[in-house]
Amino acid sequence: MNQRIGYARVSTEDQHLDLQRDALQKAGCGIIYEEAASGKSATRPELEQCRKALRSGDTLVVWRLDRLGRSLPDLVQIVADLERSGISFESLTEKIETRSAAGKLVFHVFAALAEFERSLIRERTHAGLAAARARGRSGGRKPKLGEKQVREIKALLRDPEIQVADVARRYGVSRTTLYKHVGVVAPRHS
């Protein structure tokens, strides 16, 4: 038996699910999974339970697209996973559903736009890094230790009486950072 299963989410505990719940019930959802979780949160246990309950032929219904995915690429991935399992998807507010050919087309246009957006971001990032390199700047975090400090540390560590942990503490870095900046030093007990 094909079911219409709803998923409702609010971002904070003080928001209410009533509007979503009413819309999902009106749309024929007999079961509704509900949770209060930030859209940015990767852990949404009720969504996971909902996805486990869905079977081929069922339809996952949400009030609005942003209730399901953390981002457009995330939403596209979730719907693609559902589609591979033979599960339809429907968003009530945007009037998007993937049961019909037209509905699938609309959703795949969304997917193409999401991929296009990712490509543009990637291109802009690479162009920005190339421009920075051309001006002599490199990306990434600044090294924790300067050249002068590395020379001082190397000199200190030549003395077998000085412990690596003491030097690390003195310079406010970890032993791993020392090994990375100073090169391979035989670990000494500290």
Structural class: alpha/beta
Distance between the termini: 67 Å
Cα Rg: 27 Å
Let me know the CATH homologous superfamily of the largest domain.
Resolvase, N-terminal catalytic domain
Overall mean confidence score, pLDDT: 85
Placed side by side, the strands forming the largest sheet appear as 2-1-3-4-5
Strand segment tally: 5
Give the helix proportion (percent range). Answer: 40-55%
Secondary-structure arrangement, i.e. CATH architecture of the largest domain = 3-Layer(aba) Sandwich
What is the CATH topology assignment of the largest domain? Answer: Rossmann fold
Number of helices: 7
Low-confidence stretches: none
How do the SSEs run, as a string of H and E? Answer: EHEHEHEEHHHH
Organism: Acetobacter vaccinii
Keywords: DNA integration, DNA invertase, DNA recombination, DNA-binding, Plasmid
Protein name: Recombinase family protein
Pfam families: HTH_7, Resolvase
Structure description:
- Helices cover 48% and strands 12% of the residues.
- By secondary structure, it is an alpha/beta fold.
- It folds into two domains: 4-112, Resolvase, N-terminal catalytic domain (Rossmann fold, 3-Layer(aba) Sandwich), CATH 3.40.50; 147-182.
- Strands 2-1-3-4-5 form a five-stranded mixed β-sheet, sandwiched between helices.
- The chain starts with a strand and ends in an 8-residue tail after the last helix.
- The model has no long low-confidence stretch (mean pLDDT 85).
